[in-house]
Each structure stands twice: as structure tokens, then as C-alpha cells.
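Box S2. Input/output pair 1.
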Amino acid sequence: MDVESRQGPKGGDTMAASEVSVDWRGRPCGSRKHGGMKAAVFVLGIQAFEMMAIAAVGNNLITYVFNEMHYPLSKSANIVTNFIGTVFLLSLLGGFLSDSYLGSFWTMLIFGFVELSGFILLAVQAHLPQLRPPACDMMAAAAEAAGECEEAGGVKAGIFFAALYLVALGSGCLKPNIIAHGADQFRRGGGGGDGDGDGDGGDGKRLSSYFNAAYFSFCVGELVALTVLVWVQTRSGMDVGFGVSAAAMAVGLISLVAGVFFYRNKPPQGSIFMPIAKVFIAAVTKRKQVCPSSSSSIAASQTVIPATGAAPVHRINKFRFLDKACVKVQDGHGRGGGDGGKESVWPPCTPAEVEQVKVLLCVVPIFACTIVFNTILAQLQTFSVQQGSAMDTRIGSGGGGAAFHIPPASLQAIPYLVLIALVPAYEACFVPAMRRATGVDTGITPLQRIGVGLFAVTFSMVAAALVEARRRRHAGLLSIFWIAPQFLVFGVSEMFTAVGLIEFFYKQSLSGMQAFLTSMTYCSYSFGFYLSSVLVSLVNKVTSGDVAGGGSAGGGWLSDNDLNKDRLDLFYWLLAGLSLLNFFNYLFWSRWYSKSVETTMQVAGVRGEGGGGGGGEQQEEKGVDEVNMDH
């Protein structure tokens, strides 16, 4: 038996090709003409305008579903969370299509127009009364007798859900490609990074700065949506609001197309799942073979080639059974694979292919630990909006003149207003200070950044529970600004967790899979919103009839359309407890991940120009030093 140390017939070429960037005509990019911030700024444009459009719809959607479509409050909350969850789940489809067949630019352009068509259809339905149920006051109906308002059904419901999920399809396929395409303008590979974002060179710093700039762009889009666009929806009607979202989406598409001459484009590589399937099938087929005695034997058996512009591949000391996929088997010689035998019809995989599959498996627990974080986000976009509706929304005394009323959904703008100042301060002050203290180019590693956010978000739910308990004691008299802290704490925690997670996934160095890996970030949002729907239904079922425990007679904590009868405060406390448990779970898995990554190295299957074995050893030693320093 020996371990294959060759260039795979397709794997090596694929990985090499994945590092090649072309312009809009398919010609090799020029280092000065293409890429860099001059190209990324157009991507930041569609990032801001698309976020502006989708946030204006998503953050105030529960108001439209409840007041105009006449669905009960708990069902309305589930419709919103299912919609947002679907947006993020479909990001997997967008990442797959981009990496495999279309490329990020064409994926964004095609599905950008799909999203635009959904906004237009929503605006048309909101404008035409015959496409909606008859007007009815749901709050008055809830106070008098349930079921008086006609719930949307039939063709009307069909049009609504068709429009809603056109938006979900377009936005979901767009999101991961916005991040990946922008980051591709800076990515040069190499640099000795370990995939944790802490050992990169100058390009790693620029890439990390780009992720912060992308989050800043995201905050600007959210802020405009939650102030100007939500105010338009409240003042001029949802039809005008949806129309403005459509206009914002159109401007974003114009920004995307305007940068076409400057983009560095990564060509699609064919199905990204075939190399993954190949590794698993090869490992199962060769399951009776002897696994290499140590992970170092695989490294020793391969030619380590430093690649110019190629991303390094992790050496993972977990999932050793997959190393059997690299075994070269000779028929007729059993485990020994002696000379003269006929080679097995199933070719061995390259170590690079095996290590990339291991990376995918290793990041799954990190991904799973962020689901509860996004379940909390779901509450801020649903129940917290309704919580604000049940409070005093006036600004000023109102004596002598009409007081200004704040749209409850606009309260979500508070953290983004603060973050617009905090994100540049984080990049200009926090990162350099932490860089001097830790020696890490990005200040703190992405895993540490995620952990800070997961710990902080618990206090968002603590604040929400305390304020809701106080609101119940002062029904209708408590100012809406009391719920600002829960939004503010979540916004700060999101700056750490969301950006850290995107950076962590993108820097896993899976050649040709950047968009798909980035989509896992959004998939976490999806599972978080779906979990929210499950929790709402489960809590209602468990607490049904639990009058002593806070539930209403015959119903659960969240079964009424009236928050004064529901026990939203207890639900918030439940989420705070889950969040704290999730943080300790994350500490375990982040430590497990750190111990799994032995080193970062170039392995066979990653092609490069020039360089020899000595350069590879230097690269390996550098990777070891970085991992030891960071972990």
C-alpha cells in the first residue's frame, strides 16, 4: 500500500483553475486594471441597496400580514420567520449555482431581477383592494370576538405567497454571491493563513477590512430601510413602500452592472459536490485498507508545492477514515498493494480533495452554534415589533399639536445608527490595538469574534424580558424607547458574530467553493428563523392551559393576538437561557476545531508556478507557527 502523491486528473486542474480570475470577456485579469476597492465599491452598492429593499419588507412584514392579510398574530409571526428563513436557506442554492455553473456575477444579475419582480408583485397586490381581504381592524376584532376579520385565502393568498417567495428566491441566491464576489476582488491566496483568519499577510488585512466595509454597507442599507422606507410604508401605505423597495433594488442592479469592466471573476468549476462525493465513495470502497499510521505520513508522501496565488489547504487531524480515499490499491495484492498488480478501477483521491472534505465537516459544529443567535434575531423582527406597537409611540408632549409617532419597526434602526459609527471605529482603533496585543493581523481571530457576539446576545433577551414585564405593568403608558436596549445589544453582538462567521467561512480556503461556504452563514440565519417558528408552536403547546405558569386559559404563552394577555416576557427568558447554554456549547466546539487543525500547508492537487520542496517546508513551518500562536 502507498499513498497517492500525484496530480489528480481533474482535481488538480480544477483547483488551479479556481485561482484564475478573468474579466467580463473571459480573458485573464490584469493586476492593476481589475479587482481591488475600485471594483468592490460597485458590489458594496448592490449590498446596500438590496439590503435596503429586503429589510424594508422583512422588518415590517408582520404588520402587513397581520393588518392587511388578517392572519392571527402567532401565524403572522411564523409566516415572517418562515419567509426570512427561506431567504437564507436558498442562499445554498445561490452558492451552488455560482460555484458550479454560472459564476457569481451572472448569478447575482439573474436572481436580482427575480427579486425585483417579487417586489413589483407585492406592490401591485398592496395597491389593488380586490387582491386583498376586505379592510378590517384586527385589534378591535381581537378585543371583541375572534374571527370577525376575513383571512386571506385562495387566489389572494396565492398571489401574496408567490410574490413573497419570488423575493425570497432572488434575495437568497443573491446574498452569498455579493459577499463572495466582493471578497474575490481582493483574494490572492497564499499568505500562510490557517483558515481562521489570523495568519494572513497584507491581502488578509485588506480582505478583513472589506468584510467590515461590507457590514458597514449592510448597516447603511438597514438604517435607511428602517427609518425612511418604514416611515413611507406607515405614512403612504404598504403599496408605496413596496414600490420604493422595488426602486431600491433596481438601483442596486444598476450598481452591479456598472462595475462589470473592473471585476475579477472566478470561472465556475462544474458541480462542487462531485469531488466531495468522490472522497466519501473512495473511503467507503477502500474501508478495508489500512489507514496511514499518522497524519504526517500523508504529508510526507506528497509533494508539497507552494503555489503562486493558490490558497493553502488545511491539515486536519480528525476524520482519519477519509484518509483511506488516498490509498492506491493494487488488485490481487490485498492490503499490501505489491508490485506488478493491476491498479484498482477506483482511482485514489488527492490529499487536497480529502482535506477539503474534512474542512467542511469540521466547520459544521461552528455553523450549528450560531443557529440560536439567529433565533433571537427572529424575535426582534416579529414579537419585538408588536411589543413596540403596544407601547406609547409618541415623541413630544403632544399638547397643543399632533405628536410624531414612531413606527415600531423603525426602532430596529437604533443599533444600525450606532454601528455606522462603531464599525469604522472597530477597524481604525480596535483592530490596531488588538493587533499589537495579540500579534494577529485582524486583531482577534474570527472564532474569537464569533464567541464575543454569542455571549453578548444573551443580554439582548434579558433586556427584552425585563422591559416586557414592565410594559405589562404599565400597559400603553410605557415609552417605546424602553425596547431600544434589546435592539442595541443585539446590533453590537451581530457586528462580532455575523462578520466573524462570514470571514471564518470564506477563509476556509476551499478552492472554487467560496460562494457556497459563504452561503452557510446565511443558512445559519435560515435555521434560526425556522427554529423560532418551532419554538413558538412548541411553547404554545406545552404552556397551553398553564394559567398558573402564566398562560391564558385554554392557550399558551403566545396564543393570543393581545400581548397584554400573552406572556412574551417568559418566552424571552427562555431564549436568554438557551442563548447562554449555546455560548458554552460554542466554547467546546471552537476549542475542538482549533485542536483539529494541525497546520496549514500546500498539498498535492494544488498546482503552482515554480518553487520546490524547500519552499513547501517553509510554508508548512510557517503554518505550524501560526496555529500555535493563535490557538
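Box S3. Input/output pair 2.
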Amino acid sequence: MADRRVEDNAVSGQLQNDHRIADFDPQQKPKTNKFAIACAILACTTSILLGYDIGVMSGANIFIQNDLKLSDTEISVLAGTLNIYSLIGSALAGRTSDWIGRRYTVVLSGVIFFVGALLMGLAPGYAFLMFGRFVAGIGVGYGLMIAPVYTVEISPTLSRGFLTSFPEVFVNLGILLGYVSNYAFSKLPTNLGWRYMLGVGALPAVVLAVGVLAMPESPRWLVMQGRLGDAKRVLDKTSTSKEEAQLRLDDIKEAAGIPMHLTDDVVSVPKQSQGESVWRQLILHPTPAVLHILIAALGIHFFQQITGIDSVVLYSPRIFAKAGITSYEHTLLATVAVGFIKTIFIFIATFLLDRVGRRPLLLTSMSGMILSLACLGAALTIVDHHDRTIPWAVALCITMVLFNVAFFSIGLGPITWVYSSEIFPLKLRAQGVSLGVAVNRVISGIVSMTFLSLYKAITIGGAFFLYAGIGVLAWVFFYTMLPETQGRTLEEMEVLFGKYHKWRQANAMLKTKKVDHGDGDENKGQVNYE
């Protein structure tokens, strides 16, 4: 809303009198705010922590199993329980971030993970290692919730998709670093190699703790505390103009229930949205729009994980070994290639989100994942039914794994976090996003802990056929339930939701709504939704 009004007011001033040749020049693209980008990068450093753990465990679990003499079940539990433990962090993060602020919740996430990484690196045995993963999991849960919330709240509307995709970018960067760490420390003695792999994960947490000193607080959180003066100063730094900053502030004040005539640096804020009433509005008595938002957010998180991306990433060395790559060094190198592909395609996605839109990328991504999972299942089934190595089937397995992570990274990976963090109303955002993270981590933990048992029960090819079938259901859900949010302000989201398959009508209304530019009109530049 704010960004459109800035553009509309500028255009109005040009066309009120005569039409000059310059008026017909192509409209300039909005400037990218470098300070907002820097803030988003610092906040999203928390996402490296999860990515590193996913990547490093794919190789470290083999060393851990050999060193501590663990069974496949114990390794599955070790790999998957961090996701379950992160539920504690994500559940606490909503209330914590509303209490101490988004900025210091980012710091808390880094501190907790730092302690957990050190405990894992120093673990003398399985029980101590599990305790370290418990602590690290809480830190990951905090980071997964707060990074997208902070980024979406500090981002200008026209670059929100680009900036809010940063958490997934850093998850992928963390995965790549984890794979590289596996390869770098694989030459060490077994009892040292995995400890170095896990312990090095503490380094990003240190960088985060130092870098956060340069981050401002979220302007939307500041408004919710009644600190309008501080919020205005942050918006001035993260907007492309003073006028845009003022319009963004007006939108946030309206969403927070603060009367427009209140302009003091510190004002009182209505308290009805705090505590238990937030959960009442979100779960017990939601409006049709909030119910639709909740279904969409939880659904996209559910399908992001249930389609098996963690099985592909976490167990890629085993998949390549099953396909016929016998050399452990070659297996790790192939796994590093997976990390590079994920990172490259997530960077491509960041530049497409605000140009192409969420829905086209999401549906294309899911279609590619379905095809690659089906082909991977077919190739692994063929390999399973032959005693000798079949070169073309091995090549197809490697190619389909790379295709799968590429299609995931260009759509479903980043859009899940962008979409779920931008659609909730301001007063419900922290708790809403924490619910999405909880669903995401539960399903991720289930997939991680059951993959080895699943492929033993229905064959490894059958497991990927199952994921492909679930992918078809995901595509139908995305097509029918998720409106396009590109170009809409955070304060406009409720207009799009609540109509389910008729969301296009609401989107068309927002696009065609006329703005009154008449002289002396008190509501100049305002959009009326009645």
C-alpha cells in the first residue's frame, strides 16, 4: 500500500498540468536500499546454523556411527531429533520476540546454538552428543522463526520477496559449508573428524553475535511498543525516500490500532492483542481471512518437508552409494556438488521472486520436483534389480538428485519462508510464523528419522515414488489455496485471504482500486477497501 501510494503521488504530480515528453519515459525501477539488505544478511546468519547442521550430519553420521559403534536406528534418531528439539525454540520464539524484540531474539538464537555446537564437538559419547543436539536444536528453532519475521518487517514492499528469501539462501550456504567441512575433515582420525565437523558450527554464531550490534530493531515491533520516534528513524534508513518511510509508518500504525493523529515519539498502544488473545484470534476464533492464512502457512510448511527434501540432502551419500558409487571420497564430492547446485539456484530464485511472482515459481518448482523424484525412484529401482553397476542408471540417479535440489531451491525452498512470514497480520505474525516453523520441524524430523526404515520397508526407489505422489497433492494444494502476494503490502494481505479459490477477485480489486488525487482531499492517496 505504502509503496503504491508513493508511486501514485509522484505520477499524479507529473500529469496534473501538461504532458511532457519525459512523462512518457519508462518508469524507473525502485532503488534497492543497501542498509535494508545489510540488516537482512545479518539477521539471516542464524539460518546458516541449521543449514550447516543438515549438511555436516550427512557425512559426520558415518564417522559417528563407526566411532561410537551405533546402530542405524540410533543414527536416524541423532540426525532427526534436532528438528524435534527445535520445536521448543520456535514455540518460545514468538513470545520472546514480542517481549525482548526481534533483534535480541536473533542474538539469543546465536548464543544458544554456539553452546550446543561446542557441546557436540566435545561430546565423549552418544548421550552427551544427544544433549548437545538438544541445546543446538533450541537455538535453531529460535533462528528459524526470527530470521524471516525480522527480514519481512524491515523490508520495503517492492523488494520484500528478494530480501525475505535470504533465510533460505543462508540455509543453503550452510548446507554447502557442511558438505565442504565433511570433505575437509574426512582425512582426520575417525574419533577427531566428526568432532571437528560439528564443533566448527559454533563459528557462525560468533559472527552473528558481533554483527547484530549494527542491526536496528524491527520498525513494526517498535510501533507495537508505542515507540513511534524510533520506528520512524529505522524506516528512514530502510526506505528509498522520506515520503515512503512516512507512508509505511502510517500503515503500521493503522495495523497496530494506533490513531493517526498520535505523532509523539512515545505513545500508548492498545493491549488487546497481547498474550492469550493472540492465540484466540489465531486458533480459537479466527476470522475467515486469518483461518485461510493459517491453512496456507501451515500447508506450505507441511508440504515443503513431507516431499522428502531432507531425505535427499541428509542421506545423499547413502543414495549415491546405493546407486553404485563405491568410493567414499567420490561420494563426498558428489554431495558437495549437491550443495553447490542448491546454493546457485537459491541465488537465482532471490532475483526472480519480485519479478515473476510467488505462484509461478512455486508451481514450476513443484512440477520439477515431482518429475525428478519419479525419475530418481525409477533409476534406483533399476539399480536395485541388477547385480552389476549400470553406468547410465548411476548417472541418472546423480542427475535427478541435482535436479531435485535445483527445483526445490528455485521455488519451494525460499518461497515457503517468504510466503508464510508475509501473510500474517502484524499482531499475529510472530506466533503465526512460530506455528509454521513448528510444523516444518516436526515433519522434517519425521522424514529424517524414518527414511532409513522407509527404504528398507518399501525399497529406496519406492520411497522416492512415495515422495513424488505426495508432491502431486502439494501441487494441487498450492494451486487452489495460495493467492499471489507479489507487490502487496503486509497490511493488505487480509484482503487477499478468506475467499479461497476466489482470491483472484480480491487481487483484481486491489490492482484496479482508484486513488483520489483531488486537491484538498483529506484522504488523498488512501485506498478504501469497503
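Caption for Box S3: The chain is about 75% helix and 0% strand. Residues 1-30, 514-530 have pLDDT under 50 and may be disordered.
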